[in-house]
Amino acid sequence: LGRWRRTEVENMAEDSADNVDLASKQDGQVVTPWEVEADADEGIDYEKLIVRFGSQRISPELIERMEKLTGKKAHPWLRRGIFFSHRDFEKILDLYEAKKPFYLYTGRGPSSDALHMGHLIPFMFTKWLQDTFGVPLVIQITDDEKYLWKGDLEKGITLEKFYNLGRENTRDIIACGFDVNKTFIFSNLEYMGTMYPTVVKIQKAITYNQARGCFGFVAEDSIGKSAFPAVQAAPSFPACFPHLFEDKETQCLIPCAIDQDPYFRMTRDLAPRIGWKKPALLHSKFFPALTGSKTKMSASDATTTIYVSDTPDQVKNKVNKYAFSGGQFDAEAQKEKGADLEVDVAYQWMFFFCDDDDKLKKLADEYGPGPVRAGNKMLTGEAKKMLIETLQPIIARHQKARAAVTDEMVDAFMAVRKLSW
Q1: CA-to-CA distance for 77 and 125, rounded, in angstroms?
Q2: Could you tell me if 370 and 338 are in contact, meaning their C-beta atoms sit under 8 angstroms apart?
Q3: pTM of this structure
Q4: Three-state SS at 108
Q5: Sign, Cα dihedral of 59, 345, 170, 267
Q6: Backbone angles phi, psi at 208, to 5 degrees
Q7: What DSSP assignment string belongs to 389-406?
């Protein structure tokens, strides 16, 4: 009992949204839902981020327990530490072990016609979670958020534009292979009426000072921005989905990049005060931009972003032209010393998208520093070629799956209905 009490007190402190500053630049880096930047060439220091956000590192013991319970090998992104941090994932495993239900929640802010490679990460991982645990999934399309942050009537950037982008992005999401019988995708603009009672309860429980500390809002921001965090928090609670969950105690698991954590630290802080269970989270590291690890990939820069709609030649040209190299200053030095894998984008992207552990190790040994091939290390061009050959078939498969998604399929995934699991 004493240990339980200490754990609950620790969790309350880690989740508290009072007197926190998660939005300003600290330790040479800033991480918010709208801005990710680091001064260091190596990018974000995730150990410092765990301390600052008050989350817990995913331990080998936690991964081992999950594998034992599910009878399945952990996803490479878990084994490689790409999903590296969590809040209460052990409680989700407790539920699974006890054969009690839980559900998944993730989302997409529609800002471009097509997803880029970084956008695929939460959806590919969430599909694996859905297949592994056999649980329902809700996917929020935050068309309202994108209008609040990017809308501009003078430039013709309308609310309808983001609604239509949401429909297009839904095609990409469906193409990831989700089970229509277990998946509900919804547009905030369409589903807000059902969500609104939950949203209002959350809004009542958050002060402006808490929102400003978590998100960095300033006086010049629209009131819509200050109100939006409650909208993203709401699907964390089954009360949002009366057609899906009769048990209002059903717990939620949210896989997301760690820049989304401020939303859910706030959500976990307020949950006990309004009588709801805290959502659990799995945090991923950022997928680096082609130009380097100091920031995450952005959909707004088409020249240095690889979209799932790009042609094989576009993929090849972008990687060869823009992918930041951790190689040495000339070929002879590279052959002698090897590349800095901590900053080399070709290796970093292979770390995400190469499923073959042996192939990835061979690349690290032959391209990076160390005794393997010493004096004749792999050159950057060879590493980039390996990346290109890895990305092209992934994108081709996605394009084929997306081409098969019809308007009727989109409507089916977005229909308010009961799911089966």
Answers
A1: 8
A2: yes
A3: 0.90
A4: strand
A5: positive
A6: -65, -35
A7: HHHHHHHHHHHHHHHT--
Residues 243 and 417 sit within 8 Å (Cβ to Cβ)? yes
Spatial distance between the Cα atoms of 367 and 382, rounded to a whole number of angstroms:
9
Percentage of the chain modeled with pLDDT above 70 = 91
Q: Classify residue 174 by burial, with Cβ atoms within 10 Å: 0-12, 13-18, 19+.
A: buried
Whole-angstrom distance, CA of residue 151 vs CA of residue 160: 10
- What is the band of 3 on the pLDDT scale with cuts at 50, 70, 90? very low
- Sign for the CA dihedral angle at 231, 235, 236, 239 comes to positive
357-367 vs 345-353: helix axis angle to the nearest 10?
170
**Among residues 350, 341, 345, which one has the least CA distance to residue 386?**
350
Q: Containing H/E element for 295?
A: strand 292-296
Q: CA 282, CA 280: separation in Å to the nearest integer?
A: 7
Q: How far apart are CA 141 and CA 106, in angstroms?
A: 9
User: Six-digit token pair at 382?
Assistant: 């060879």
User: For the segment 192-216, what is each residue's pLDDT rounded down to a tens digit?
Assistant: 999 999 999 999 999 888 888 888 8
Per DSSP bridges, beta strands 280-284 and 251-257 are parallel
Encoded tokens for 6: 């200490």
